[in-house]
Please model this.
Amino acid sequence: MQILLANAKIMNAKASREPSSEPLFRETADALAKELAQLDILQLEEMFGCSHKIASENWLRYQNFFTAQELPAILAYNGQAYKHLKASTLSEAALAFGQHHLWITSFLYGILRPLDAVVPYRLEKPSAKPKAIFELSAQRKAALTDALIASVKADDGVLIHLSTEEYEHLFDWKRVRESVKVIQPLFYVKNPKGDLKVQAVWAKSCRGAMVRFILENQLSSPEALTAYDYEGFSFAPNYGEDAFPHFIRR
Model:
């Protein structure tokens, strides 16, 4: 199985180990970073739809992009999913397994293996695009799609989609679904009336915890995901379907 997990907006400034691999699309990331470094703080604020403080922080990051300390991707991100992935406590065996099975999606780097070298940055799907460089070009999308499909096919043809919908735009997602078997676990909270509801914080937490579960146990089949049990979320066989297994907290 290959796994997709989204990156996070919040990033660490240091990590407990050095990176050991290069991003597959580093050249593209460097080109984007150079373009971002040409923008002023107000332009970044408009493009990201963020506060002046966040824009200022990331303006400084892009000024120092090529001299900043590099971190392993899986230890660089510190959003909700990563707090529950707890990558710093993974065993060497789990990290090695992840290096061959986990991809982290990123609008700057495209796709990353866990130990790929990254530096702190911010690049979401832009709400405003003052320059053409911020459009995901057809060429880049095709290259990312080819790389992802090739990786999944070289494994067992199964992709566990624990990233988020916005990152599907990095790829020709229709072609991905046509080329490999995509399984997207969904996480729901059941209210007293029996209705199912997605709660964003729990969904992010469960995605990170499920990645940890896969890496720690070196799972090789999607059927093994049914054993996942975290903070009251467990597999609900009477809900969903094979492509969208449901994990419900009652």
About this structure: The chain has one domain: 2-126+133-249. The chain has nine helices and twelve strands. The chain has a mean pLDDT of 92. Residues 2-126+133-249 form one domain.
